[in-house]
Amino acid sequence: MSAPRCGVADLVHPRRTESNATKHSKLHVVARYNFFPDMPKWPPSRTHLNYAFGPIPGAIPLEELRGVCSRAFQTWADVTSFTFSETPSGESTDIVIGFYSGDHGDGHPFDGPGTVLAHSFAPTDGRFHYDADEQWSTAPSSTQSDLESVALHEIGHLLGLAHTPDENAVMYAIMMPGALKRDLRQDDIDGIRALYAGQ
Predict the structure, then answer these.
(1) Residue 124, preceding bond cis, omega within 30 degrees?
(2) Which residues sit in the known binding site?
(3) Which ranges carry the Peptidase metallopeptidase domain (predicted)?
(4) Complete domains list, the chain, with CATH
(5) Are the CB atoms for 35 and 78 separated by under 8 Å?
(6) Which residues are catalytically annotated?
């Protein structure tokens, strides 16, 4: 697969959940969201998560990245019981966001410009890595990737969602250059609410 995409591996045997007979005029709605194996998630005692920034390329202003990430975290907060706040680097944090090139020590090396845009880890790891060699923008052209759309996707992984086959959803693995996905779709919302149901 050479399309620009998230570096989190797709599940060979995804964990899918069908809605319990959601029917309207003989229409059966099937939920397409997926979870990681064993369904890792943040415990009920940790609904407020702190995040900080690691290495950031000079070409991306920190204030711009702060705004991007703040909006992406708030989008997830709006549909969950989670709240998020930035904390200074060096303090105890739940999530660290940074930009890395090639082999950066997490066992998932980046491939340079092109295919893998970013990756993050399932709860409660908290690492979110952008590929520093990609062309990033907050107003992407047809050759650039949108910082906010990718942040929204990777935060979904940090919260426990795996990739979905729903091409319209934020948690779909592929993100073409110039594309914007800054709003959660119903599949994303249903997935995160199913994962944390009862918490």
Answers:
(1) yes
(2) 94, 104, 106, 111-112, 119, 129, 131, 134, 153, 157, 163, 171
(3) 38-198
(4) 16-190 (3.40.390.10)
(5) no
(6) 154
| Span 71-127, pLDDT tens digits | 999 999 999 999 999 998 777 899 999 999 999 999 999 999 989 999 999 999 999
How many angstroms separate the CA atoms of 113 and 118, rounded? 11
pTM: 0.89
**Residue 98: beta bridge partners?**
129
